[in-house]
Each structure stands twice: as structure tokens, then as C-alpha cells.
Amino acid sequence: MVEIAVMGYGTVGSGVVEVLHKHAESIAGRAKAQIHVKYILDLREFPGSPYEQKFTKSFEKILSDTDVRIVVEVMGGLHPAFDYVKACLEHGKSVVTSNKELVAAKGAELLKIAQKNNLNFLFEASVGGGIPIIRPISQCLAANEVVEIAGILNGTTNFILTKMIREKTTFEETLALAQKLGYAERNPAADVEGLDACRKICILASLAYGKHVYPEQVHTEGISGIRPADVEYAAAWGGVLKLIGQVKRMKNGKIQIIVCPMFLSRESQLANVDDVFNGILVRGDSTGDVVFYGKGAGKFPTASAVVADVIDCVKHFKARKYLYWDDGSADYVENYLDNHVSLYVRAVTDDETLAFQNIENQIGAVTRLTRKGADPGEIAFVTKQATERELRQGLKTLLGLGVQVQNTVRIGEL
Amino acid sequence: MVEIAVMGYGTVGSGVVEVLHKHAESIAGRAKAQIHVKYILDLREFPGSPYEQKFTKSFEKILSDTDVRIVVEVMGGLHPAFDYVKACLEHGKSVVTSNKELVAAKGAELLKIAQKNNLNFLFEASVGGGIPIIRPISQCLAANEVVEIAGILNGTTNFILTKMIREKTTFEETLALAQKLGYAERNPAADVEGLDACRKICILASLAYGKHVYPEQVHTEGISGIRPADVEYAAAWGGVLKLIGQVKRMKNGKIQIIVCPMFLSRESQLANVDDVFNGILVRGDSTGDVVFYGKGAGKFPTASAVVADVIDCVKHFKARKYLYWDDGSADYVENYLDNHVSLYVRAVTDDETLAFQNIENQIGAVTRLTRKGADPGEIAFVTKQATERELRQGLKTLLGLGVQVQNTVRIGEL
User: Best residue in A11, A21, A126, A290 to probe B by mutation, most B CBs within 10 Å?
Assistant: First the structure.
């Protein structure tokens, strides 16, 4: 029998305990050992819970109990999760977490401690919920160079964008609906401003290229500035608007990484990933494109990914799973303004003909987009490819020439 | 350093040697050991090959060389592959294979020998080429009960069907094109008659439910009977026509498994898997639907999956990977005629009005489909759900009532 502790009894934590209970027999068969939850750490009281006896408010009790060989951290947040996880690894306990904030901020440091102590630190559930992605990238694609990873990594924003596209509603209306349905939190900033997606692409980038990428190194834009007009222009252009996290390795060893809304062609393998679903495209030099698709969040998908990691820990007490990356560095991420992009631009002007003359003078030929019911003076176009810096400078000069830019969205090449 | 042998220097075998050579450094980093190809077994001569020194025609030489710890079998076919693989496992060598025919026919037997000798027998490349699917099912979904697996498992037939849909060409024309492009073999039977897809769904079913399913137990229909009219009716019905391999566990412990063309709703997560791509849907009780998508064949996708298995072998000389299933049994597969299905039917009749009266009398209410340019007397409809046996019997009686059935396709519920 293997004793474990679960830290945090929220949505995911209670799901983990339930999955371990419900599938106890088949899990024992797969792990070749019974898995027994000895403690559940939570500061709250759960009177009447069938697991009442297991609850504790004392982390020290878990830490000092040498019977506990695996600790599941599903509290979320950076503190005290980081201190707890670090202490567990330093005390000879393997750790499984679903905490993307923790892995994105402290992954390299924790992996190093795990390696030193010959323990496992696993986090399949931190990206894509129940979609297996960490393991396929680290194992199955071991014989590939990863050329690029791009994904719809946040279900909340994908739900909002899908609704805006289908039902022509505003961002604010749709966010309110998402909150009502429980898909968005009362404070939706981490989702809608792209931070959640940013943490996930950081984890995938760190894993794929072996060097930590910190969220603060990544240019991140959310979807709160997206207007129905932008969604309509995306359709007029022949595509859809999605919030994408993307990373590519450059020839100079640096990486390009960004989180932002993008226009995707309808042919893109991510264009049909709708509603709360996530889709992650991994482009390998040998495998070509492989796409992983499923619900990226939710109690049971996430819990089952956590439990799968626990089973893997049990099976690998002797042979450590190879998951590792080095510390990051300040110059590892290319400035996003140096990336070559093409931009969709929505603007207003008093004089369309003159406006397009000026636009062409400042930033070269553009492809004009139109939509039914456009506001008076509204224009929209897609630029040629250039460095983002050049394009932004060109757009800035337009302000003095009677063209007020209202929104820009990058054109994704996926 | 780990010495390996590669048996078979065809498309996949030469890809394996090339990937091992090209990515030697990163592979050594991941495997924590250099991997060195000591022998390549092939009966043909490869004069001038950079690997000329490694070629041998003697399997005995490989078998008796105790330095060789891993053997890659990429010869294909059942014999002599089975005898060679069995002998390798009995002589203490782990085996990696891409040979679906071998795994589908002899998986349980070979896994048993591997287990007895504490060796690995890995076959990620046997299903889905470069798409990771064996490992995710066996590991990441360890905390799930697999409710159902359904997939587009054969790229050749998917290419043919996609072309038939888009370009309104006949099966025969499109097959000839696929052969010209190298997507279909000169003898295309294994692909177009569904046998290849059948082997793959057998492997997935065996893995997911722990008991061997043999290809001869699976009702298998290919696509050679599909006419452009059927493709058009699929569109009229609101979907697409795909060759699907599907398995579900029933409450009585048996399984329903079938390989056949199906109408899929456009909303289905497999409906947009086009061209030579494969898509595999795994429905877990906790994760919900997870879809894996990518190129299911090809030299480098398949080779990189083989190499990933080799790396895994090297990392797990001590801890065996848990891949196992039991022998099958004759009564394990439900007779497909007892499955509840709804059928699309295309028929000809001299008297449409009378025909639909008779149809309703024999098999109940149906949904009628129409298409532009239908042949004189051509009718098409979709039945209600019933057991396949009842529907087939009903259709048989129609022949005596002036309705000649020309083709039927099952309606997929995916």
C-alpha cells in the first residue's frame, strides 16, 4: 500500500479523492499497489464528509509522516504551495500538482530539487486538464525536434470567443453568461487577460526546449479588447478569432513566444476547436503536426490527469520519470517587436480614400476587409508581413494623418 | 552505450536508422545513453549505403549477440516477424515494433513472454503512426474507465473519401490517384477493405479493455462499395462519410466492435479529420472526450514513434513499462447484428410512393433524403434505430416488394 496526502480540497482536490475512491480497484491494478489517501490538507471544515477522519490543517503533520510517499498539491496559487511542495521534495516525498502558476514560476527550481533527491515532480494536469500533453511531448516526441507549439489553452476565453462568433454578442455580455454558467470566475482577469494561457505555454515551452520561460518574459494580450466587429472581420478574411499561445525556436537558439488573439484560417487545425475545448498543436520535425484536443479544465478531467500522475509515481519509485529543464535567462526570449507578423487593423477615418493612400504610403499595400453594418468611417485591412516594430511605427504615424487605429490582431500562421 | 538491431530496411526501417543518426545527440541526452545500431537485418543488398557494414542476412547473428539488448522489428507481415520477435524476447532482448499485423494477431502471446522475461515489448508506432496513442491510453487515462474508442485509423481510405467528397469523383478514379501519389499500394486491399483499420482498432481495444480482440472477430467493411451518390446523401443528411473503427464496452462485459463506413454528423470531432490524417477519439468516464490527430503513417512520423519507444526501452531496462492484456475468447465480441444502429439506405424502385409505403410497413418511419441529379427511380432514406438484424431482415423483405437496396451505411454516433 502506498500512502498519499492531498493538499487542497477544492474542485480538483475533491475530484482526486473521488476518482481514487471510485476506481480504487482498477487503479490498484495499474499501479500494482493500493493507493490510500492518509491526509487531506485544508483549512476549512468538512463536517459529514465521508473523508472527515482524513482532514488536517497541519502541513507539518504530513511533512513529518514518513509513511506519506506522494503528495498531491491542488491548492493553486504560488504561496504557500511553493513552500509546501519544496519542503515535500526536500523530505523525500514525490509531488504531483495541477498548479500551473507554480510550475510556470518555479518549475526549474522544483525539478532540480526533485532530481537531486531522486523523486518525481509531475504536472500533467497543469496544462490541458485531462488532455495528455506533458507526457506525449516529453516521451513520444523524444525522437523529434519540436519546431513549434501552438494552442488554444484556455477554455473560458475560447467559450467567450465561440459565443461571440456564433451569436454576435459583445465581450461583456458573453463574459457575464460565462460567469453565470460557471465557466468564468467572478474575477475573470487571469483568464480573459491571457495570464492562464501564458502560464501554460511557458510550461510547454520550458519542457519542449529544456529551458525555463517565465510568464513575465512573454508578451501577453487577452481578449477583453475584442469587439464583435473584429470577429466579423475575421470571418470576412476567411477565418476565426482565437486566443493563441505560441512558441517557436529560432535559429539563434532564442525562442519566439507570445499569447494573443489571432486570426486563424478556417483550414487551420485549431480553427474548429470551439467552446470550452482546448486544442494543442505540436509540430515535430519528424512527426509533422500532431494535435491534442479535449476539455482543458473541469473537475474530473483534471482530477483524472492528477491520478494518472500519482499512478506513474507509484510505478516509478525507483526509476525517475525524465522531466527536466534548466533555469531560464533574461535574453532567452526574442523581443516580440522583432517577430515578423502581418496585422489585421480596424480604424476610423473621415476620408476613406485619403486614408488608404496614407496607409499605403506608411506601411505598404494592404488587403482591405469590409463588413455589413460597419460604423460610419470604419475601415479594416490586413497588412503585409514585416517586423511588428515597423508595422506599429507605421500605424502610429497614421494618427497624424487622420486614421485612428482602434484595434489590431495578429494573423496566425497555423 | 546500448546496442540495438533493426530488422527490416524498408520505409520505416531506413527512417528509424536515419532518425537515430540525425538526432543522435538529443536522443542520447533523453535516453541517458548512446544508442548504437549494430545490425540491420535485410535480405536485400544496399551497396554504397553509409550503413553498409551493419547489414546482415542472418537473424541468428543478432539473436546470439548478447550485446544487442533491443531489437526493432519493422519488417511487417506475420512471418517470419512473429518467430523472430518471439525468439528475441525469449533470448532476453526487448522488442519495439511498428507491425500492426503482428500486434493484432499475437499481442497477448508476445506480451506474456515479455512479462515473464521482464522485458519490454512496445508498439506505439503500430497505431496512428506518429500520433502518440498507445502510451496516452495506457498511462494518462489510467485513472479513467474507457467508455469508447472510435477513430479514423487509415490514411489511405480517408484520403480517398475526402477526395470523393470534395471533387465528386468515383472510388475507382480516386484510388488510382492515391496509388499514383504513393498513398495507396498497388494491392490496396488491406487498406480499402478495412483490414488495416481493423488491426488498429483491435490493438486499441485490447489495450483499453485488457483482453485480446482478434481481427477475425471483428465485422469489417471497407469503402470499395461507396458510390459518389452515397457521399452526396451523407452531405444531404448533414454530415460526411468516413471509415470508422469503433469499440465500446457493454454492461455484460462483452464489447461491441466494428470497422465500417459511417455517416458522421458535421459536429462530430472526427468529421473534420481529412486527407491522409488520422483522428482517434477516446471517451473516458472522467476525462470526457480526448481526440488525437495527426498523420497516421509516413516514413518519419512512424520512425520517430519507433525511436521514442527505443528510448523508453533504454530508460526502462529495470522497470518494465506496464503494457499488458490477456488472451481473448470466442464469446468476448458481441455479434454486430445485435448492435442497435440506424442505417442509411440507397435503393431503386419503379414506384416511389408505393415503395415508401412498403418501407414504412416493413421497418417503420424513415427520414427521406434527396439529391440533385439522382438516377431515375433512386431513393434514399435513414431508418430509426433498431437492432441491425431487424433492419436487415426488413430490408430483405423489400426486395419482393419492388425495392432493390443498393447500399447501406451505418449512422455513427460520435
Answer: A290
